[in-house]
């Protein structure tokens, strides 16, 4: 794989599952593979993740019905993501807007 995009899904995983996902992803990657992580950096997230589509000319959130509302979560940071994903290294980290973080990692 050359690029992996994880759009807010890491917020919905507990620490153990996030670590296991990292172990599995790194086995599919080669030197230089990039991982783009978009995540919430606050203490609450939507009840369920939204579906994001990257397909042909379509790029964006789907119109699928999702449960509205918020639930508490453990905030993610580039440091926590780095620790949870052995084999990946933080290349850059950006605060996209209040409560949102984008982290670019590479193998």
Beta strand count = 8
Tell me the fraction of residues in β-strands, as a range: 35-45%
Question: Given the C-alpha coordinates, what overall shape results?
Answer: globular
Distance between the termini: 11 Å
Main beta-sheet annotation: 4 strands, mixed
Spell out the helices and strands N to C: EHEEEEEHEE
Question: How many helices does DSSP assign?
Answer: 2
Mean pLDDT: 85
Using the CA coordinates, give the radius of gyration: 14 Å
Poorly predicted spans = none
- SS-based class: alpha+beta
Q: Helical residue percent?
A: 10-25%
In short:
Helices cover 19% and strands 39% of the residues. It has 107 residues and is an alpha+beta fold. The model has no long low-confidence stretch (mean pLDDT 85).
Detailed description of the structure:
Helices cover 19% and strands 39% of the residues. The chain is an alpha+beta fold and 107 residues long. Strand 1 (3-7), helix 1 (15-27) and strand 2 form a beta-alpha-beta unit. The longest helix is centred in the N-terminal third of the chain and has 13 residues, at 15-27. The protein is globular and about 40 Å long. The mean pLDDT is 85.
């Amino acid at each position: 794989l050359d690029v992996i995009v994880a759009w807010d899904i890491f917020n919905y995983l507990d620490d153990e599952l996030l670590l296991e996902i990292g172990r599995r992803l790194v086995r599919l990657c080669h030197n230089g593979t990039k991982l783009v992580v978009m995540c919430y950096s606050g203490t609450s997230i939507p009840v369920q993740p939204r579906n994001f589509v990257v397909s042909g000319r379509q790029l964006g959130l789907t119109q699928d019905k999702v449960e509205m509302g918020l639930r508490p979560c453990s905030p993610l940071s580039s440091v926590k993501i780095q620790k949870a994903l052995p084999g990946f290294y933080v290349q850059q980290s950006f605060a996209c807007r209040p409560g949102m973080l984008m982290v670019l990692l590479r193998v």
